[in-house]
Design brief:
Number of strands: 10
Bound molecules: fructose -6-phosphate
CATH architecture: 3-Layer(aba) Sandwich
Helix content: 25-40%
Oligomer: single chain
Largest sheet: 7 strands, parallel
CATH class: Alpha Beta
Order of helices and strands: EHEHEEHEHEEHEHEHE
Strand order of the largest sheet: 1-10-9-6-2-3-5
Strand content: 15-25%
Distance between the termini: 16 Å
Structural class: alpha/beta
Shape: globular
């Protein structure tokens, strides 16, 4: 595991965007695994800026996102599709037919997950998977205690994740209770993994996940077993590491 120290959030974003853009330059038809959440927003903004300058071409890129809320359609501003479209897809020359997320509107969970596993397999697997890190160590919506063997599956969100999401919804009742997420097995099959982490509030979980024991209680700890992981974290997020 390679840990790259960034000065602050914008430096983290630029460094992460550099790694993603190198991937696109090296393999223009690559498959990027993408994440939502607040951490990668600056990374996407940087990629958009380089695209606008003519330095990046997304025309052959395929994207597969980590997760989507069950029950939210693409027009819902809280859906992850909406987020991705808003932050990246509509701002670059990516072909929308090559942007994939689990189908939040598919009520049959088994079908939604099977279909998504097929999408990833047919794309040829993920070349570079971008991840954020949850305060409880979750990656995607893989919450503490889940089996590392899982492929795409439907999860009941924990109380703490629902509370963290509440700020985006008008009331707690509107917060989705379930989501479809790539599983740890799916994530671990990516050829390369890039984790972005920012802020002092993530310092404790960074230490636990990347320097503590490998345990399903801290899902991100499994990344220690992957042979090509780069963590780009700012000084605040690395402040508990000696
Ligand atoms: C997002 C995702 C989540 C987030 C994590 C960190 O698609 O699957 O695992 O990466 O919750 O979120 P932020 O970046 O908002 O701290």
């Amino acid at each position: 595991m390679k840990i790259i120290k960034a000065r602050d959030y914008s430096d983290m974003s630029r460094k992460a965007a550099n790694i993603i853009s190198a991937q696109i330059i090296m393999k223009p038809n690559c498959v990027l695994g993408l994440a939502t959440g607040s951490t990668p927003i600056g990374t996407y903004a940087q990629l958009v800026e380089w695209y606008q300058k003519g330095d990046l071409d997304f025309s052959e890129v395929t994207t597969v996102n980590l997760d989507e809320y069950k029950g939210l359609d693409r027009e819902n501003e809280q859906s992850y599709y909406y987020f991705m479209n808003d932050k990246l897809f509509r701002r670059v020359n990516i072909s929308l037919e090559r942007t994939f997320l689990p189908d939040g509107m598919e009520p049959d969970s088994d079908k939604a997950c099977r279909d998504y596993n097929r999408v990833i397999a047919e794309a040829g697997g993920v070349d570079l998977q971008l991840l954020g890190l949850g305060h409880n160590g979750h990656i995607g919506f893989n919450e503490p205690g889940m089996a590392f063997e899982a492929e795409t599956h439907c999860v009941n969100l924990t109380e703490s994740t629902m509370k963290a999401n509440q700020r985006f919804f008008s009331s707690m009742e509107d917060v989705p209770r379930q989501a479809y997420t790539m599983g740890i097995k799916t994530i671990m099959q990516a050829k390369k993994i890039l984790v972005v982490v920012s802020g002092a509030d993530k310092a404790a979980i960074v230490k636990e996940a990347f320097f503590g024991p490998i345990t399903p209680q801290v899902q991100a700890s499994v990344l220690q077993l992957h042979n090509d992981v780069t963590v780009v974290a700012d000084e605040a997020a690395l402040s508990e590491i000696g």
